[in-house]
Amino acid sequence: MMASLRSDVHYVDVHDWTQNVSDPSITDLRRAKLPDTEVENRKVDQYLQEEDKRMCLVSRLLPRYLVNKATAVPFREVSVMNRERRQQGMFKPVYGPPYTKPLDPSKCVWEAYPSFSISHDNGMVAMAVHPLYGVGVDIQCLALPRIYTSARQFIDEMRGDVLSEDEYGFIDSHTADEDRLREFYRIWTAKESYQKCVGLGFALPMTELEVDQSGDISRLEDGKWASQRSGFRLKSFTLKRCDGTEFVGCICVGELSACDPSWTCYRPKEWPSPSMGQGDIVISLRPVSVSENLLTPSDA
User: Fold this and answer.
1) Is the peptide bond before 272 cis (omega within 30 degrees of 0)?
2) How far apart are CA 236 and CA 239, in angstroms?
3) Which 3 state secondary structure label does DSSP give 174?
4) Cβ atoms of 183 and 132 closer than 8 Å
5) Helices (H) and strands (E) in the chain — how many of each?
6) How many Cα atoms sit within 13 Å of 59 on the Cβ side?
7) Do residues 197 and 135 lie in contact, with contact meaning Cβ atoms separated by under 8 Å?
8) Domain boundaries in the chain?
9) Chain centre distance of CA 34
């Protein structure tokens, strides 16, 4: 039987939220929702810009919201397990019900801690989740960084750190600046979502990955490109803000046995996770509201 490659991407546009993170009413809700409030608040308040504070707060609330929705465990009782790699200064949080409380078998809940991945850019926060496989997600706003005057200038500067010759050639075959930029971000988000999924982050250089025009990814192994399709699937998607701002995104789903063993965030009852077969990812994009879902007095 082919395992389900359906994956949800929950996303939040913090521009739709009209209140400030420092408003007294929001401060009270933060205290009610997040455990170890002093630490959590410090992480949020370390940012100077309101948009950055909002994205940080949403990134901490969104996984807890999902676990609460599935298990009815209150936000602040949701456990956070950090799989640390101190030598690289990296960690990956895994969220789930409290370890001391068994899951209610009568409810539709996960048998193991699901894998989460979060990305944010320009006021948009996206979280991918899958109960069986490792997962990685990345989003990028389809906009040219301010210090550049053209997509060609930007891509030429990033080329040596990101692109293979074939990837650069394909991008350069497009004539319109926006098309060049979209293809660059398609490749960038594919590579970063794979880096997150496999568990190596930027310790795995982007130049050791190559994305073809169909979206499949290969990895440089012993000087040769090796397809990763047997253990990983990638799928690009697009998010749009009400003002028309577009975000390019990609999700990567991978068999846990193919992920870095020191980074794998949980073990399901059946190990290794089921084979992916030949299926492709089917994404469900699910908008989440800060005021209606994340910072409500109920479920605190």
Assistant:
1) yes
2) 10
3) coil
4) no
5) 6, 12
6) 20
7) yes
8) 6-294
9) 21
Q: Which residue did the predictor score with more confidence, 65 or 98?
A: 65
Query: In CATH, what number does 6-294 get?
Result: 3.90.470.20
pTM for the structure as a whole: 0.87
Q: Which amino acid is at 244?
A: G
Of residues 45, 41, 59, the one with CA closest to residue 119 = 59
Contacts of 183 (CB under 8 A, 6+ apart): 170, 171, 174
Kindly report, residue by residue over 21-44, the tens digit of the pLDDT.
989 989 888 888 887 767 777 888
Instruction: Report the side by side order of strands in the sheet with 232-240.
Output: 134-141, 246-254, 232-240
Tokens representing 150 are 């053209």
For the beta sheet containing 224-227, the strands, ordered from the edge strand earlier in sequence to the opposite edge, are: 209-211, 217-221, 224-227
Q: From CA 249, how far away is CA 193, in angstroms rounded?
A: 9
